[in-house]
Write a structure and sequence with these properties.
560 residues, alpha/beta, Amidase signature (AS) enzymes, eleven-stranded mixed β-sheet, 32% helix
Length: 560
């Protein structure tokens, strides 16, 4: 499977990569290719050490490391109850037990590569702790990282099986900008996780976990690590959040640098935290948020002293929550019924809930006047206004970070001394990715301004502090996607606006998770969105654990 095909697959599967544009119909060949992966754990042992009955689906109460967030782990580390070395080893044991197929169960297939230095890094951080040096709340905490983000010394998405006859696998020569920040804060990079297709949902291993930060969502839910660094173009951190009962956050566009990460669009893409709890998301944002003058889409925001400042269970008291009815009505009835029950938790937390029964005109001429043409659904799925004028430039910037300009693949297209998206297009025998379109970019930004103006007016009309809707319109579908298009998401609204949004567990329907998404009313509202998410999370406490990945023998003694 070529990298270009893999990448086009992940951007064409709207709702699963997160692209949000009009979906491109999936050919049978592309579908088969999307499900091909290198099983790095084919020789892993089955979870025979588990004291639980082996099952492939279901919901249960958390036990062992499943459901333990980074904040609790940090307390245990600080109290000397556990070391980072033992913690990393315990997570590696869980990956070994549950990622590969075992005892007739498909396995999660969430992990692409393990960081060979994870245990050594943990040992060094334990030594720092013993010497009295604590870097912060992430000191000694393992984290999963989406495959599209460079980790020094580990494979990049340009892998050996993609071009084995043309080039060696490309190893990242340096960490991505945000990975450097996480390392400096004491986080331990545990593994690269699968991007897009091939991962199974731990709540039902015949189902999809959502994408394209799928490996993070499945891995966090299954207790591979408490935290993940994902990437979101039009839903990639929040879709897995909804379908794996985890928390997925999309920061305001430009708040987190994507330098050293494979972006599809400067206009929309952002890195974002995935975690078990909102408080852990806030802790990660304190580390990764900030202006990067070297990255084209980075924006100077007035950042809070700490993103945890508004994490108060009473934060929603006196606030008004607006239910975006077009997004609610577009969801399947079983999701709507469960969502309506979940919304009651906002009221229990002290918020006023109002219905925003706004009109999005189906007439493009009418919609064009207020910017809502961007929200009209295109034939085949996605939003009509979703275009990417900087796809080539964003990809080429990533390839430049790989120091692979002397590879044979780099010679396939002009310029012949640089590895570019066009080289991968030629290798995959696909049409060349269109050159960046400055005029289209300006049109897109004008559309965003019009849409923000429309959105601001409805927010003012209904007097709301936050806008809420079902994250996904359906429950998780089959892991092997049917042919054709797939458009179950409401997640594309936030990236088109460029506003922050968070998906919080909303409960379960037939033991399958769904999510509630909270969106801010302007760019930079990130701390407020986290505050609202935290208060809802505390009032609802919906998150439970997947029965298919129970605690391993001895794991119960690690964290008391």
């Amino acid at each position: 499977m070529s990298v270009s095909m893999a990448y086009r697959t992940r951007i064409a599967t709207c709702g699963l990569r997160s692209c949000g544009r009009a979906a491109v119909p999936f050919s049978a060949t592309a579908l088969a290719a999307a499900l091909i992966f290198s099983n790095a754990y084919a020789d892993q042992a089955s979870p025979a050490a588990s004291t639980a009955t082996i099952v492939s689906k279901g919901v249960t109460d958390p036990s062992g490391l499943v459901g333990v967030d980074a904040a609790k782990l940090q307390k245990a580390l600080s109290a000397g109850q556990i070391t980072s070395v033992k913690l990393v080893q315990a997570y590696l044991d869980r990956i070994k037990a549950y990622d590969a197929p075992h005892e007739g169960i498909p396995g999660l297939r969430a992990v692409i590569d393990l960081n060979k230095d994870a245990l050594a890094d943990a040992k060094a951080l334990d030594e720092e702790r013993a010497a009295g040096k604590i870097r912060g709340p992430l000191h000694g905490i393992p984290i999963l990282v989406k495959e599209v983000i460079n980790i020094k010394g580990m494979y990049t998405p340009v892998r050996e099986e993609s071009f084995k006859d043309l080039m060696n696998p490309i190893i990242a020569p340096s960490d991505a900008f945000t990975i450097k920040k996480l390392r400096d804060a004491g986080a331990i990079i545990l593994a690269h996780t699968r991007n897009g297709e091939g991962t199974n949902n731990p709540f039902d291993q015949s189902k999809h976990p959502g994408g394209s930060s799928a490996g993070n969502g499945a891995g966090i839910a299954a207790g591979y690590a408490p935290l993940g660094l994902g990437e979101d173009t039009g839903g990639s951190t929040r879709i897995p959040g909804a379908w794996t009962s985890t928390v997925g956050f999309r920061p305001s566009t430009g708040m987190v640098s994507m330098d050293g990460s494979w972006a599809y669009s400067y206009w929309s893409d952002t890195l974002g935290p995935q975690a078990l709890t909102v408080s852990d998301v806030a802790t990660m944002m304190d580390v990764i948020a900030g202006y990067d003058p070297t990255y084209p889409s980075s924006v100077k925001f007035d950042l809070p002293k700490t993103f945890a400042a508004k994490l108060d269970k009473d934060y929603l008291k006196g606030k008004t929550i607006g239910i975006l009815e077009p997004a609610r009505r577009a969801s399947e009835q079983n999701v709507v019924a469960a969502f309506d029950e979940a919304v009651k938790k906002f009221e229990e937390a002290g918020a006023k809930v109002v219905s925003m029964d706004v009109d999005i005109s189906p007439d493009p001429k009418t919609a064009e006047k207020d910017g809502t043409q961007a929200l009209l659904e295109a034939p085949g799925g996605g939003l009509a206004g979703w275009v990417f004028p900087t796809a080539e430039g964003a990809a080429d910037r990533f390839f430049a970070s790989l120091d692979a300009d002397d590879s044979d693949v780099a010679k396939l297209a002009e310029p012949t001394d640089k590895l570019t998206q066009h080289d991968l297009d030629v290798a995959a025998k696909q049409p060349l990715t269109p050159a960046d379109d400055e005029a289209l970019g300006k049109d897109l930004e004008n559309n965003r301004k019009s849409l923000r103006n429309w959105y601001g007016k409805i927010v003012e009309k209904y007097g709301v502090d936050f806008v809420v809707y079902p994250t996904m319109r359906t429950l998780p579908p089959a892991a092997a996607l049917p042919k054709g298009t797939f458009k179950p998401q409401n997640t594309q609204i936030a990236p088109f606006l460029g506003y922050p949004a968070i998906s919080i567990p909303g409960g379960y329907v037939d033991d399958l998770p769904f999510g509630v998404e909270i969106m801010g009313v302007k760019a930079g509202d990130d701390a407020d969105v986290l505050g609202a998410g935290f208060a809802f999370e505390q009032a609802s406490n919906f998150r439970r654990a997947p029965a298919s990945t129970p605690a391993l023998k001895g794991e119960m003694d690690l964290i008391k």
